[in-house]
Amino acid sequence: MTETAPRRVLLDCDPGTDDALALWLALAAPEIALELVTVAGGNVGLAHTLRNARAVLGLAGARVPVVAGADRPLLGRYQAETRVHGQDGLAGV
């Protein structure tokens, strides 16, 4: 059986609890080489999503760069939805 190299992946997300799980799954998948994570504001602001991505990767012991992206939508006004994933996006975990 021929083994193929893991697919190099850039993951763009807005880490609340759902994207924290996506990061864990990407790190655990042998067919994925997570090369870079970019984050944007989502249910919570950019400062929280940036911290959340770095926290998840740090807990996993992964040395993957995390880069901040947009802090607001291209159109319209940004409004945090803290009732979805809590004040910090990770439900205080």
From TrEMBL:
GO biological process annotation, one example: purine nucleoside catabolic process
Pfam families to which the protein is assigned, alphabetical: IU_nuc_hydro
Any one GO CC term of the record: cytosol
Record has Membrane as a keyword: no
Keywords per UniProt: Glycosidase, Hydrolase
Keyword Hydrolase carried by entry: yes
UniProt-listed Enzyme Commission number(s): 3.2.-.-
Record-annotated Inosine/uridine-preferring nucleoside hydrolase domain positions: 9-92
GO molecular function, one term: purine nucleosidase activity
PANTHER family: INOSINE-URIDINE PREFERRING NUCLEOSIDE HYDROLASE (PTHR12304), URIDINE NUCLEOSIDASE (PTHR12304:SF4)
Protein name (database record): Putative Inosine-uridine preferring nucleoside hydrolase
Native source species: Pseudoroseomonas cervicalis ATCC 49957
Gene: rihA
